[in-house]
Amino acid sequence: MRIEGVAVAGVGMVRFGKYPDRGVADLAREAGLAALHDAGMSLADVDEAFVGYIQPASLLGIKAVKELGLTGLPVTHVENASATGLVAFREAAWAVASGRAEVAMALAFDKMTDMARGGGSGRGAGRDQIDTTILPAAYFALWAQRRMYDYGTKPEHFAAIAAKNWNHGALCPWSDRRPDHRVTAEEVLASQLVAEPLTAMMACPADDGAACVLVASVERVRARRDGRRLVRPVASALQTETYEPGHTFLGPVVGPATMTRDTARTAYDAAAFGPGEIDLALCHDAFANEELEYYELLGFCREGEGEHLVDEGATVLGGSIPFNTDGGLIARGHPGGPTGLAMVHEIVQQLRGQAGERQVAGARTALAHLVGGGSVCTVSLFQAD
Amino acid sequence: MVRRPVRRPIEDGYFTIPDEPGEAPRLLGSRCPACGEHFFPRRVVCARCLAEGCVDVLLGPRGHIYTWTYVHVPLFAKRDRKVRGDADWRTRGPSGPAPEAPGAGSMSSYGVAQVDLPEGPRVQGILLGESDDFRIGMEVELDLETLGQDAQGNEVVIFRFRPVGFATPAGRENRA
Description:
The structure holds two protein chains of two kinds. Chain A is of the alpha/beta class. Helices cover 36% and strands 19% of the residues of chain A. In chain A, the strands form three sheets. Chain A has a five-stranded mixed β-sheet with strand order 1-7-4-2-3, with helices on both faces. A four-stranded mixed β-sheet of chain A has the order 8-11-10-9. In chain A, strands 5-6 form a two-stranded antiparallel sheet. Chain B has two helices and nine strands, in the order βββββααββββ. In chain B, the strands form two sheets. In chain B, strands 5-6-7-9-8 form a five-stranded mixed β-barrel. Chain B is globular. The chains are: A alpha/beta, B mainly beta. At the A-B interface, helix 4, helix 5 and strand 5 of A face strand 5, helix 1, helix 2, strand 6 and strand 7 of B.
């Protein structure tokens, strides 16, 4: 179903990175206030909030919203692993589309550095569980190895994608990694081998951060920010796994590749436009080989032809379909919960025409894609007036 | 008579521990009584036809490698490894070796595979051997990896795969 009558009212984020001396409420307040200021609003304007984080603690979302005020608004917590931020955004957009809220907030924060220190990733992970022994890089490496076997893909393809995202990050003020030199595929390949064929520079960092997006009825956004180009979320699909023979249950694992393909199709059907009409895309590139797979699964080329897009430079800024224009998870960073809202932040800069050196000329439509824990996929589509 | 240490699974309900050390463990799986689909680990509701009442079966011990990798970071590294926080990483990228992992698990580097069992399930697990030992399609067999000792002195074990033909348990081991 198409999302009608909803526009982004404001966006704000804290640059992702390591913040050993700041708590999540502090990070959330900074992101929340930035989004409210961008929208010309205060918490008094917000009818409902959806708050996302991955760390295992109760009610942190309400505590974070209290940093912005105590107005009695309903707050719902959202957790879908790496997809958390985009799913919080989906709930906020539909809350407005349904008419039950005129203004809704999606807020997310996390400190992956605390979680890495505190033991395990996510809820309840530990040494006494059968599915927490193996490093996450391994699951994506398993996918990359099979890709190389099936299609003759080379580590150089993965390295070229990683180098692209590092270099996009250099142009983005909100990127964690902003290299002071042009990163080459050779440099990526020469970094430490983590899990064959993936090297350290093909992987995202463990970050801290926060991000916030406000959505509202088109009328309300026009009333507050007249003259600014309107950015509308027009579709948002969310899906969990479907069973096929050979499914791997005990993981965590990457999850079935069909999940991204099917979720994207649902979103394209709802929006009534497809990959051919999209000007830029942001996808889950926790590891560089994923991005190559998603070129195909999101429909930007046929199966087995992702390498051609890499060879042609099609997904670099200036190419025909730039991917991860803010550096992606690999450079902009991946704190967990807030990652999806940072994607919306970048899409809004691009569609407003305010992305500076990263600006995709004439950008009118954009796609955001995330997967979470091998178990969920979400795709949102945006259109500028 | 020398008493062998008792072997205990890292978590109950996933695999058998044979009485004899040389004997292969089996995986604890399920079969759907309605459509015959097999699953690992055990489940009640069939994921294919949604029938209830799947029955317990033993799976394996042999299968074929669907895909594999070799991880150059210690087992349990995510829990044990000190998080890198240097500002240099942010602008220069990583240079030099990764920080050491204090108190890491029993393996400093290890193979991982997804293995297709003849009954149908694809199972992910640790793979015994070195990087140049593995090929997609290779036949592998289940055995047990010792992760350490618990407070009672029992050996804590997890299932792993090894290429068929590798000696066990005293043959080729992962680098310690």
